[in-house]
Amino acid sequence: MRKIGNFFLAFVPILLATAIQYLAVFFAMGISTLIEGTWYTFSGTADFYTIFDDLGYLWMTSRFNTYIMIIYAAMTIIVFGLWYYMRYEGNYLPNLRHTFHPLTILGVVMLTPGMQYLSTYIVSFTASLFPKWLEQYEKLMEGAGFDEALTLGMFLYSVIFAPFSEELIFRGVTMHQARKALPFWAANLMQAALFGIFHMNMIQGIYAFFLGLILGYICERGGSIYHAILLHVLFNFWAAVISQFITFGDSAFAFLFWLFFGVAMTICGITVFTLGAKKCSLAATSGISPDNTDNDCTPNATNA
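Now predict its structure.
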């Protein structure tokens, strides 16, 4: 009976995160109304209708949407960070030498381009089968401001705030809660599926599911949520910045080359990361630093 309760509790994080999204919208709208109304009241330069016309224009801008996303991410980091820390014994200040190993970091770095290219192929393949899904995805990205020049606010959200927020929600809380009722493979599938659903569109949801599976494995096998956060940060940084300077090419050779590159880097990245995680686990249980250095890592069962 307790397992059934723990299973259904694993759905609470996504519901709470959705509620916080709406709260962030109302909070941002309320603050902007207060500022706009106060300014025009004391300046006496506009009437009631002009104020709300200006607010309506402001609320439709991508800049305002960026503010909402940053507010939402900050709220979820606080809420789910406390939840993760108090309920699942999360460690806010991990000892870097005890948490990371050079091979786990190298594995994460290798996974970044591999998963980016595989995600691109997943999007292209899905869009070729369901063109309307691509249209919905492009409209969503346009409304969020991702089709415009990268601003500081959008950079901070996509590369810093979003990875911390989403990792705490899905790998930090959802997966740990699901583990109380399910074996890891099932809990990982569950949190990845919820991660995909949370993105609210089919194109992004499908590749988010794929990404969520890898992030869940990295978090579990590495024994620390910070491995998943690092991978998520690098993945989003690649998409926001590095991808602007890389072209695929439109030849058959380029198509096959980048597909092979994505698969190879992903497989090699997981292999290298797993090797590093094993070294950490063995060193921690034996009390010997990996590779006879001063570096040390937590055992696999420890969650940061």
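Residues 291-304 have pLDDT under 50 and may be disordered.
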